[in-house]
Design a protein that fits this description.
Oligomer: single chain
Number of domains: 1
Strand content: under 5%
Radius of gyration: 17 Å
Helix content: 55-70%
């Protein structure tokens, strides 16, 4: 990769990684709040930690060519690495949603609404950008 140029896919992945990272610190769901003290949780419990790990890894993959210096190509700077990291993040997000649903016995339709789960939506948007950028990286053929 020529590190002086930024492909659109790499920019999308970088923005998605930052959004997913920010979303990990915001509440992923909030219970209560009307008559009782609200209880909120973020990504750092259960499978949500996989989203945090994926966001860190994808940012590391983006920065790796800059840290490597003038070497031509690094073995991990490939589309397959981005696919693996994106898959880890998406699986972590989906597993966390399933875990929360399994923990709550009552109806939890409003539990994941944007006003009660802002971090989940921001992390989901970040992961969507990571997936979109990964598709751009994998599909785009390098110029010869």
């Amino acid at each position: 990769m020529d590190r002086r140029t930024s492909a659109r896919g790499r920019v999308l992945v970088a923005v998605g990684g930052i959004l997913a990272l920010v979303g990990c610190f915001l509440p992923w769901y909030t219970l209560g709040g009307d008559a009782v003290t609200p209880l909120s949780r973020n990504a750092f419990e259960g499978a949500g930690i996989l989203v945090f790990i994926a966001a860190i890894l994808v940012l590391a993959l983006i920065l790796l060519p800059y840290a490597a210096g003038d070497r031509n190509a690094l073995p991990v700077d490939r589309g397959a690495s981005f696919v693996l990291v994106a898959a880890i993040g998406v699986v972590g997000l989906l597993l966390r949603i399933v875990q929360v649903q399994a923990q709550r016995q009552e109806r939890t339709f409003g539990l994941f609404m944007p006003d009660r789960a802002l971090g989940l939506w921001v992390a989901g948007l970040g992961l969507a950008l990571i997936v979109w950028g990964t598709i751009e990286i994998v599909v785009r053929r390098p110029a010869r």
